[in-house]
Amino acid sequence: MWSVIVSLDRHNGPRAASAMAFDAFLSLIPLAAFAGYVLSRTKEWSDLVAQPLLKAAPPEVANLVSEELFRLSQSSAVAPISITGFLWITSSGLSTAMGVFDTIYNTRERPWYVRRAIAAACVMASLAVVPVVAGVGVLIGSLSGSIGARIVAFALPAGLVTCMVAAFFRLSIQRPNIERRRVFPGAVLTVVLWSVVSTLFSLYVATLGRYATFYGSLATVAIFLFWLWLLALALLIGGELNARLERERAGVLSIPPPGKWSALGLSELAQLSDPAQSPTPLPQSATPLPQSTTLPQSAGLP
């Protein structure tokens, strides 16, 4: 696990997580406007859908989002504009994650409009699935107070979210030459980290946090941004884990440092690590350079 974190740091994962967290923070206002408009028209589903989602956030963040939902629920003119703004801003954050994955896997970057289209499709799918998942989990838990019902109410949403994250890994990372892709280990790790981070960070803010002392009225904003940064970093850690597992399966112990795209795939990198294992000649781009080169001496030099 430590090697995964070190590799992510080499690929500028923390900096990319900061950009993703900022994009997610900017998308809060258009999302709150659209969600408030929808929930105000379906009041019977408001508590069933919104409350489970808000419980996953720290208390200060949940209060902020609840206030914005109530304030913006009275306006209907901003709904079409807000959903467009939300899709554009949020897809920017996922597009940043896809760029990091291209660096991690050392693959050619796709055009920006392709990445933005894939990211927007993932956001739209999450808008349709996440509320349903939250509502089903609460409904199952409310039907019976037994321990088994509570376990199912927790395991079912967690499993569906894991499948969503795995689908994002599958779509966002282009590996056409790899038949068996590693997506579920990183997806499971991402969801576990999301749960642990949200729980521990909420406890820390409620008991030990002194954000108001340092940030004053901006304490809630600071808490929200830091929480989003942790969630974005967990997503990148999951992608890094999948990449490491694929490299280990291919017999590649290390990867080139981040930089320009290289035409070498996992099979070529495996040949570089041990050329004697495969009779296939190495590509010309992978031919090692001579260690020393003799330069011609000038006529006037000794």
Structure description:
By secondary structure, this protein is mainly α. It has one domain. It is 72% helix and 0% strand. It has 12 helices and no strands. Helix 2 packs antiparallel against helix 6 and helix 6 runs parallel beside helix 11. The radius of gyration is 24 Å and the shape is globular. Its main location: membrane.
Strand residues, percent: under 5%
Major β-sheet, in short? Answer: none
Instruction: Tell me how many strands there are.
Output: 0
Poorly predicted runs of 5 or more residues: 254-270, 292-302
Question: Which shape, going by the Cα principal axes?
Answer: globular
SSE pattern: HHHHHHHHHHHH
Mean pLDDT: 73
What's the N-to-C terminus distance?
57 Å
- Give the helix/strand class: mainly alpha
Per DSSP, the total helix count is 12
Secondary structure: helix percent = over 70%
Protein name: tRNA processing ribonuclease BN
Subcellular location: Cell membrane
Biased composition (Polar residues): 274-302
InterPro entries: Virul_fac_BrkB
